[in-house]
Amino acid sequence: MEQKLNPKVTQQLWYLTVKNFKSMIREVSQLIWIFGYPLLFMLLFRFAYGAEVYVFMAPGVTILGPVVLISQLAGHFADEKESGTLQRLITTPVSRQSILLSGLFSQLIVAVIQIVLMLLLSFLFGASYHPNANIFLVFLIPFLVAFSSLGFGLLLASFVKSAGSAGGLAWFIILPLQFLGGLLVSPDVLLLEFLPTALALRAMTAVMIDGSVAFDPVGLNLILITIWGIGLILLGILLFRRKTAIL
Amino acid sequence: MDLAIETNNLKKYFGDIHAVDGIDLQIPRGSLFGVLGPHGAGKTTTLRMLSTILHPTSGEAAVLGFDIKKDAREIKKRIGVCPQELVLYPRLSARENIHLIAQMHGMAKKDYKERTDELLGKMNLLDRASSLVKGYSGGMKRRINVLMAVIHEPELLFFDEPTAGLDPQSRRVVWDFIRDFQEKESTIILTTHSMEEADDLSDELIIIDHGKIISQGTPDELKGKLGEGDILEFKIKEMEQRDEIIELAKTLDFVRWGKPVGKHRIVLNALDGLRRVSEIMDVVKVKMEDISVRKNTLEDVFIDLTGRRLRD
Ligand SMILES: Nc1ncnc2c1ncn2[C@@H]1O[C@H](COP(=O)(O)OP(=O)(O)OP(=O)(O)O)[C@@H](O)[C@H]1O
Ligand SMILES: [Mg+2]
Questions:
Q1: Are B12 and B123 part of one and the same domain?
Q2: Residue by residue, what is the 3-state secondary structure of A114-162?
């Protein structure tokens, strides 16, 4: 029997990520979502609350933007299931990990674009950055929120059957995470402080406004959010694999 | 004999539905093997099991010498699958769709680029190859659907109704294309509910119904089983008397067999049927409308076996 080459996983991963990304940016409604959403979010908060309040809200607004990636990722996988492309892909020697990771990677690219955009806008709209604010952390915190959001998205993706229901159901996770995480109410309930969004909000406020890099609340919270992210993604992968394995 | 596919009592049940109900197959390498059957017969389900994306309920199958449960990955490296539905990425171009499959198989960039354009040329798609697939017509999409299955020159190809919904001209293009492949010594499994397609293309075929093989052989062997006669088909108004009319017709020595078909029709197998229609008319004593006489087709084989048409 002729020996067949083993296709390289890294190459498959790269090509799938490119494919996902192209598919995203070639759809006008997706583009509006990716770029318009952060803009809208910023504008609303800046002009609904006025310049003075906005200074204090800016950190929150910046980290709560990436939470909508939950709906993006779940929608992406639901779409692949619904349209049959996932079934077609798995008739090739592609590993399921590559398919999964490529979905995550392409969303992380979107997250980076969104976050940079939001930070620039928040700066333009007059958010106050402490002179000692650590720019790397200012970026890293929302990025980790994006990362943990992808975990939620993956969990959701393993339950929903269509892109439509993914988009709808995602809001049942997005809104509680945004609101209970401190967008409008400050969390007095202890448990809520451990939501990834609440953790990120405290860290972001400390970094942006106070110029802090202290372990508590910055370093510790970053670790906790990362644990959230990794835990959710691992759980998501487990569930998703079970659901999309050979059915 | 060197077999591309061998199955042993392969079954797939979806709850109460016995989609595939004990299929035994031996398909030699290099052959074009047809799977003919009506809607819901279990064709797609069989193909999905053989292409390792669906677990059988029971039974065994070896594809290219590999076990479908244990060596799925080895099988996937060597097969190409053209699904029944159009499964394309709408926001990629034709070229990008085809490239993606080649990339998943780890082909070298230079090879797959050249080959993609060659294939697109054969299918008359080269001038639109860079535009997004979502703007393509159904027929163009179907051709891309086929190309995505063959870009990596698989040893074994599964075509699930590749020409469904195509106009006659595009259908020819796809048929020629499939024949080309056969010359390259690939094994091809083709499902269809078009009897012309099964007849024209396959070296050997099975007819399946309700998940079971009801007949197997070369197209000529299968048609030969119906005897020498012609097929005479006609419509009657007197539906209640249909069985009687068939019995009457069968009293003629040149009428081999007769079956009711559909709601109003009767199919007879009659030697020299064309010249002797009037004799049949005399015997059955009812008005025969819409009479047609033809050579045996695979459709008639199916009618003979089940009393139904493939398309019913
Ligand atoms: N995933 C599934 N869940 C439940 N039932 C299924 C599933 N897939 C197929 N079936 C059932 O199994 C039977 C065989 O279906 P299959 O798709 O294999 O038929 P087919 O011969 O390909 O028909 P067609 O010519 O219409 O494509 C049908 O009754 C179908 O409803
Ligand atoms: Mg089918």
A1: yes
A2: HHHHHHHHHHHCCCCCCCCCCHHHHHHHHHHHHHHHHHHHHHHHCCCCC
Q: Are residues B272 and B196 in the same domain?
A: no
- Rounded distance, CA A75 to CA B118, Å? 35
CATH number of the domain encompassing residue B241: 3.30.70.980
B104: amino acid identity, one letter: M
CATH classification at residue B44: 3.40.50.300
Nearest by Cα to B192 from B119, B267, B299: B299
Say if the Cβ atoms of A246 and B88 lie within 8 Å.
no
Output the CA–CA distances (angstroms, integers) from residue B50 to B35, B76, B137, B199, B262, in the order listed. Answer: 13, 10, 30, 23, 33
Pocket of ligand 1 (CB under 6 A): B 14, 17, 19, 37, 39-45, 84, 193
The pLDDT tens digits along chain A (247 residues) read 455 667 788 999 999 999 999 999 998 888 887 778 878 888 888 888 888 888 878 888 888 788 888 888 888 888 898 899 999 999 999 988 889 899 999 999 999 988 898 888 888 887 788 888 788 888 999 999 999 999 999 889 888 888 888 888 888 888 888 887 766 555 566 667 788 888 888 888 888 888 877 778 878 889 999 999 999 999 988 887 777 654 3
Q: How many domains does chain B have?
A: 2
Residue reference for tokens 């009687």: B244
Contact between chains at B104 and A12 (C-beta distance less than 8 A): yes
Closest among B208, B187, B190 to B199, alpha carbons compared:
B190
Element (H, E) at B94: helix B94-104
State how far the Cα of B52 lies from the Cα of A238, in Å rounded to an integer: 21
Complex ipTM: 0.86
Whether the Cβ atoms of residue A85 and residue A244 lie closer than 8 Å to each other = no
Write out the residue range of the structural domain in which residue B263 sits.
228-295
Specify whether B208 is located in the same domain as B249.
Answer: no
* Tokens (6 digits) for B1: 């004999």
Strand order in the sheet with B58-63: B17-28, B3-14, B58-63, B66-67
Per-residue burial over B182-191, b = 16 or more CB atoms within 10 Å of its CB, e = otherwise: beeebbbbbb
**Atom of ligand 1 at shortest range from CA of B48:** 18
Contact B20, B210 (CB under 8 A): no
Q: Which residues pair with B156 in a beta bridge?
A: B79, B187
Q: Are B187 and B158 in contact (CB under 8 A)?
A: no
d(CA B116, CA B236): 54
Query: Which residue among B11, B23, B45 has the greatest number of ligand 1 atoms within 8 angstroms of its CB, and so is best to mutate?
Result: B45
The Cα of A25 is separated from the nearest Cα of chain B by a number of Å equal to 9
Specify whether B98 is located in the same domain as B216: yes
Name the residue among A101, A86, A7, A2 with its Cα closest to residue B103.
Answer: A7
Pair (B150, B288) in one structural domain: no
Exposure string of B250-267, with b = 16+ CB inside 10 Å and e = fewer, is: eebeebbebbbbeeebbb
